[in-house]
Design goal:
mainly alpha, single chain, Growth Hormone, Chain: A, 77% helix
Length: 411
């Protein structure tokens, strides 16, 4: 069905969809934020930094492979259960098993192996879940649904960190696995995959895709469709890179540049403010974007807001100024997360290969996550310390804001 003519999804459906995404993001946040570092500290206190960096690098490569691979596999899946539901279920089940294995891991290499498999299958679950919206949500609700995903992503990050901080290592892994399975079950039990019965994308010649292209007219102009997709990818990659670079050395920035006596507490305060601002703007921005029918301007303006927040950080000499930057950064990032995903849904060029294209677009997040430490270290040395680092992050983000304006098919 044409995305412009689909029936609306209910608030209950949107809530269950958001809870699914919350559980998926909680599952990776708990290990990534604290549990892995805690285990490695026990086993290898002398070279914990190098060991953790190695584990995260291996897992990062698995994630880079997992997202496009998962998208391709879900597109090629057919049958009465649809393209996405089987991979959401399989991804969650294997990921939960990996979390249990990580809780019982006897040493570093067993932990690394379980984390690598986890990254592959949580990518399958998340990627398939993200493709559900462009498969079945009407275009005029893209922003609302994407705003809920932005909200639950942030809540999942905070909740995963809280689970890891409040529980012992083994119980925290098991709680994360249980919550992932519960979040998946509550969504899939009432979910009818709109791709059920649709021929898999692997065999388009034998069975033409009955779902028309999401943007009318792009089916016979694939280059034009992928041109907009490409610019959105570039914009997302640059803005995400700028944001990650800006946050990477926050603890050291507060300690060495601002001279804060308690940099740990400062990071906690800033994280709380940042998360609260993201929550405050994510859903509201999505709803406003739906009502206006516009996406591009919101993404460009929020990207510019992130760039300005980086410039404020570059000029900051005391903690109140950093607090102001955190507010601006959180408000801007909340809008960006909400409307950027809606814009992605708008520019997916092929109805038959939405999973693959969503997987490729996710590389614009996984790539910066891998590159940010290297870029931050290089910028810190090359541009004269923290002011230069934050100006670099702001410049990268501003380029992302400019890239969004090159999109032509979406207002």
């Amino acid at each position: 069905m044409d995305p412009g003519a689909r029936p609306e999804v209910s608030r209950g459906w949107i809530t269950r969809y958001g809870l699914l995404y919350l559980g998926q993001n909680l599952a990776w946040a708990a290990p990534a934020q604290l549990l892995l570092a805690r285990q490695i500290l026990v086993w290898h206190p002398g070279d914990k930094e190098a060991r953790l960096a190695l584990l995260m690098a291996i897992g990062g490569v698995a994630s880079l492979v997992g997202h496009p691979l998962a998208g391709w596999l879900s597109d090629a899946t057919g049958g009465r259960r649809g393209r996405r539901a089987p991979w959401i279920l399989v991804g969650a089940a294997v990921s939960a098993g990996c979390l249990a294995a990580m809780a019982a891991a006897p040493g570093f290499w067993a932990l690394t192996a379980a984390w690598t498999v986890f990254q592959l299958f949580i990518a399958a679950a998340i990627n398939s879940a993200q493709a559900v919206a462009p498969d079945g949500v009407p275009r005029h609700q893209y922003g609302t649904v994407s705003g809920v995903l932005g909200l639950t992503y942030t809540l999942g990050l905070v909740a995963g960190t809280a689970v890891a901080a409040l529980l012992g290592t083994g119980p925290a892994y098991l709680v994360a696995a249980t919550l992932l399975l519960a979040a998946t079950a509550q969504f899939l039990l009432g979910f009818r995959d709109p791709t059920a019965g649709v021929a898999p994308a692997a065999a388009p010649r034998e069975a033409p895709d009955p779902d028309p292209d999401p943007a009318p007219g792009r089916a016979d102009r694939p280059a034009a469709g992928y041109r907009d997709f490409g610019w959105v990818f570039v914009a997302r990659f640059l803005v995400t890179t700028g944001n990650y670079v800006a946050l990477f050395y926050l603890f050291y920035f507060l300690r060495d540049r601002i001279g804060l006596a308690d940099p740990d507490g400062g990071v906690l305060v800033l994280t709380g403010i940042y998360a609260a601002c993201v929550v405050a703007t994510a859903v509201a921005a999505g709803v406003v974007s739906d009502r206006s029918g516009r996406r591009r301007g919101y993404v460009a303006a929020s990207s510019a807001g992130v760039a300005v927040a980086c410039a404020v950080m570059a000029a900051a000499g005391d903690f109140p100024v950093v607090l102001a930057a955190a507010v601006l950064l959180g408000l801007s990032w909340g809008v960006f997360m909400a409307v950027d995903q809606a814009l992605i849904n708008e520019v997916l060029p092929s109805a038959a290969r939405r999973g693959r294209d969503v997987g490729v677009m996710n590389l614009a997040v996984a790539g910066p996550n891998t590159l940010a430490p290297l870029l931050a270290a290089a910028a810190l040395g090359a541009f004269g310390g923290y002011p230069g680092l934050y100006l670099f992050a702001g410049a990268v983000t501003a380029l992302g804001a400019a890239a969004v304006t090159r999109v032509r098919g979406v207002p």
